[in-house]
Amino acid sequence: MSMPFMDPEASGNDSVVTEFVLLGLTKTPALRPILFIIFLLAYVATVGGNFSILAAILAEPKLHTPMYFFLGNLSLLDVGCISVTVPAMLGHFMSNNRSILYRSCLSQLFFFHLLAGVDCFLLTVMAYDRYLAICQPLTYSTRMSWGIQRALAGMSCVFSFTNALTQTVAVSTLNFCGPNVINHFYCDLPQLFRLSCSSIQLNEQLLFVAAAFMGVAPLVLITVSYGHVAAAVLRIRSAEGRKKAFSTCGSHLTVVGIFYGTGVFSYMRLGSGEASDKDKGIGILNTVISPMLNPVIYSLRNPDVQGALRRVFTGRQPPT
User: Fold this and answer.
1) Could you give phi then psi for residue 11, rounded to 5 degrees?
2) Which family does the UniProt entry place this protein in (predicted)?
3) pLDDT at residue 143 tops 60
């Protein structure tokens, strides 16, 4: 176990930690090459899968709609989210040095919350898009115009950037003067809160506000949107029409369930004294499994996406 690395100019109670040690997923050296291969394959599959979805959306005119505009942005976010954590973890698997500089830890924290926050808002916007398409079809093209799509995506980025910056600046005011070992494979708020030797009351309050604004409120909006969608779909007389509507909504609801499920469990344990393997498992679901599954979920029951993917991989031109 690494001893805390202190600022050489500091002394006594003013000593501060300038780097942390990430314990990672295992302490067994023999397992590291195996885990390296597994997570490398997961990373390649995630990047390849999400960029394939993005290429299909760009290449297929039929997919130039608001729903797929947001899905393309979601694919980019998934690539970004897994890139914040997994490449560094792969490096630690192949090295005995598991330290991460204090500023690098804060950078990882910032980008993780930035990308996850935009993800959260975009999932809400996608639910609103489905509500307009199914419940308000006559005004859909006006209320979800190209300008509104860009505005919604831009607002999602601005809100998430504000939250990520606020959380990161608040963490930077904490004192870390003792233990520097993080029992996880990336830096996040719960792990840093446990190591702080100063009060985290303000940080917890900020996180509570963020959870209400970026977690509870979007989830309520998604639930209300899909409540109206379900009622409208059940009124469709055609069985084929109901099936098509439920298939597109079902994919989105599955992604929402995974995203919010893992997020809730990650931050429910803020009050626990020590990190456990459960935290690491939830972290893998949140940062690796979810981004890897999203392309599969969105293309599995979507013939339009499947057809576009086939044309991307075979080089055939879309029908005119």
Assistant:
1) -150, 160
2) Belongs to the G-protein coupled receptor 1 family.
3) yes
Residue 4 forms part of a structural domain: no
Q: How many domains does the chain fold into?
A: 1
User: Residue 57: which of 242, 320, 254, 295 has the closest Cα?
Assistant: 295
Question: How far out from the chain centre does Cα 224 lie?
Answer: 22
From residue 219, alpha-carbon distances to 17, 132, 161, 254, 257 in Å are 38, 17, 19, 13, 10
pTM above 0.85, yes or no: yes
Alpha-carbon distance of 116 to 119, in angstroms, equals 5
C-alpha distance from residue 5 to each of 14, 18, 101, 178, 191 (Å): 13, 6, 10, 9, 18
Domain-embedded: residue 8: no
pLDDT band at 316, cuts 50/70/90? confident
Contacts of 269 (CB under 8 A, 6+ apart): 190, 278, 279
Here the CATH number for the domain that contains residue 275 is 1.20.1070.10
pLDDT digits (tens, 9 = 90+) for 222-255: 999 999 988 888 887 777 777 777 777 888 888 8
Count CB-CB contacts under 10 A for residue 114. 23
- Domain holding 92, by residue range, is 20-314
- The fraction of the chain above a pLDDT of 70, given in percent, is 88
Within a domain: 6: no
Helix, strand, coil in percent for the chain, rounding step 5: 75, 5, 20
Residue 7 maps to a domain: no
Q: For residue 6, give the 3-state DSSP assignment.
A: strand
Q: Are 198 and 175 in contact (CB under 8 A)?
A: yes
C-alpha angle 130-135-140 in degrees, rounded to nearest 5 = 70
Q: Is 282 exposed, middle or buried (0-12, 13-18, 19+ CB in 10 A)?
A: buried
Whole-number Å distance between alpha carbons of 271 and 318: 54
- Which residues are CB-neighbours of 41 under 8 A, at least 6 positions away? none
